[in-house]
Amino acid sequence: MSLVKQVILNADEGLRYPSIVELDMFQSFCKTGEKRIRIASKLAENERRLVERGSARFWRKCPITPSNSGNMRKTNSCQRDQGWYIRLVAYCVLAGNDQPLADIGTIGMREMYESLGIPIFNWVEAIKCIKEEAIALLGEEDAAEVTPYFDHIIQSLVSPGPPYFQNNGSLKY
Q1: pLDDT-based confidence at 116, cuts 50/70/90?
Q2: Among 46, 81, 96, 119, which is least packed, fewest CB within 10 Å?
Q3: pTM value?
């Protein structure tokens, strides 16, 4: 949910007008609108490039994976999902918060990949590689807007419970 919608719903729920603090938040949100639109547009325009470069980076790190097995159906499915996560990050940038990830994209994500037999570690690494490509594409200042959303996806993959991955990439139960 966007900040604007949240401010309005909070005020309406309290049967009041938005507070000065809420209006200041709204004003700040509006001031950053052009920047958020520019970042989301750049992600949209470069989705294919980000997926291709992120996949190449991932396969250099993890050359033996289901998505790099020569089975184009698996490769295409994984790359489709990677593009989907880039789109969700763009939604978050536009909304100014991570609510689109919670509403649309991360609930049950880990369980879905586990049920399909896709190693979670691979998805974590793939999202990290796409995040690195997005940072390189956007530059430091704009990348600061998208990094928390990629981190949210990564955290959603590793946090629901055992097993989880340690910093060195090994499984811990």
Answers
A1: confident
A2: 119
A3: 0.83
| Helix, strand, coil percentages, rounded to 5, for the chain | 75, 0, 25
Closest C-alpha to 122, from 69, 84, 86:
69
Half-sphere CA count of 35, side-chain side, radius 13 A: 14
DSSP conformational letter for 163 = S
Sketch the domain layout of the chain as residue ranges. 1-31, 33-172
Specify whether the CB–CB gap between 88 and 79 falls below 8 A.
no
> What type of residue sits at position 104?
I
Domain at 33-172: CATH code:
1.10.490.20
The amino acid present at 161, given as its one-letter code, is G
CA dihedral 98, 103, 106, 112 (to 10 degrees): -170
Kindly tell me the sign of the dihedral angle through the C-alpha atoms of 74, 78, 79, 83.
positive
pLDDT in tens, 16-41: 999 999 999 989 999 999 999 999 99
Task: Outline where DSSP puts E strands in 18-172.
Answer: 164-165, 171-172
